[in-house]
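Thread title: Can someone regenerate the structure for this chain?

I was given the following input by a collaborator and told the matching structure tokens would be attached. They weren't. Posting the sequence so someone can regenerate them.
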Amino acid sequence: MDLVETVYRTTSSFPKEEVFGLTAQLRRAATSIPSNIAEGQCRESTPDFRRFLSIARGSLGEAETQVLIAERLRYINAVKREEALVSLHETARLLNGLLRSLTHDR
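Best answer:
Regenerated them for you:
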């Protein structure tokens, strides 16, 4: 959820012409991460949970790529990029740990 807040704050300064482009795409990818974690946790099986966590991990990769694109297009500076990447990497670390713990519980 912290990541989603970071992304929304960061994308609020994107150009208005990006509202249906990169802004929306990055926000969707970020929002998809906790949404998939929550949906997977509500499923009735560990394999289903792992599958939704894997989808969340894919959204992390998508969001990271979009942050780098935003920097290349000069929508954000290096400081904002780093803030977003730190949040993405921390989320990835936690998500990977959760996935590992579920793999060991088989």
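The chain has a mean pLDDT of 94.
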